Amino acid sequence: MILSAEIECIIYDAQSLKEKRSVLKRVKTRIQNEFNVAVSELDYQDLWQRTCIGLVTIASDKVIAEQTIQRTLSFIDSFPELERTETVLEWL
Predict the structure, then answer these.
(1) What is the CATH T-level fold of the domain 2-91, as seen in this structure?
(2) Is the per-residue pLDDT at 57 higher than 90?
(3) What Gene3D superfamilies does the database record attribute to this sequence (predicted)?
(4) pLDDT tens digit string along 6-51?
(5) Which candidate among 40, 42, 54, 61 keeps its CA 20 to 30 Å from the CA of 76?
(6) What is the distance in angstroms between the CA of the first residue and the CA of the last residue of the chain?
(7) In angstroms, rounded to a whole number, what is the distance separating the alpha carbons of residues 50 and 69?
(8) Contact 28, 34 (CB under 8 A)
(9) What ranges do the domains of the chain cover?
(10) Torsion sign over Cα 5, 11, 17, 18
């Protein structure tokens, strides 16, 4: 089973693209180290306070894939510099 998530976030404290990329790099690296998930910035690369992050996981069981993505989303919510505004999950 393949589960993907598109997450739109606001980064309130970023005052430049450099600060935004610093926050995103830290978040993406920690996600990749903690979970078996592929992560990438999908949209809004030129906006310094907004981003869209894509997550993808593959598992043999639907429940395991859902648990992995939900744990990853909770982990993203633990970052004080990011606010998750919209999340779209899609089974492939």
Answers:
(1) Alpha-Beta Plaits (3.30.70)
(2) yes
(3) TT1725-like
(4) 999 999 888 899 999 999 999 999 999 999 899 999 999 888 899 9
(5) 61
(6) 7
(7) 21
(8) no
(9) 2-91
(10) negative
